[in-house]
Amino acid sequence: MQVTTQLLAPMMVLIGWTLLMLIWMYAKRIPAMKKANIQPDDSLTKDLSSMMPLGARQVAANYNHLMEQPTIFYAAVLGITVMGHVDQVAIYSAWSYVGLRVIHSLVQNTYHTVTHRFLLFVLSSVALGVMVVRELLKLFV
User: Fold this and answer.
1) Number of CB atoms found within 10 A of residue 135's CB
2) Which stretch of 40-44, 79-83, 95-99 has the lowest confidence by average pLDDT?
3) Disulfide engineering: 38 pairs with which of 7, 27, 33, 139, CB 3.0-4.6 Å?
């Protein structure tokens, strides 16, 4: 694999993981909605999250988290790749980010200890920060 495309692999893995979390969310939420006799249109007049069991809420929250900060990761990966600045540090940082986000998902969706999740979030943010700061330095220094 060319060094310029090696940075795209972790991005695709995180996209695949996000889609897997979407399936996991539906697998938890649809049975929970049926059990609680929640109809889809109930979302127009009720707060459905308060009617869902914790496990279904956790997976939905995790899916939402994968729609938030990772958008910066995707933009950073594409920017670094398009500008031709892919190097081993960017690749290692990207894989670190993805690995930490996957572990974050597993913690949130299984035993859900907030301090563990927070540590994983901070570490993944550091990995993302390394990518972005290094790219900014390449561009402006």
Assistant:
1) 16
2) 40-44
3) 33
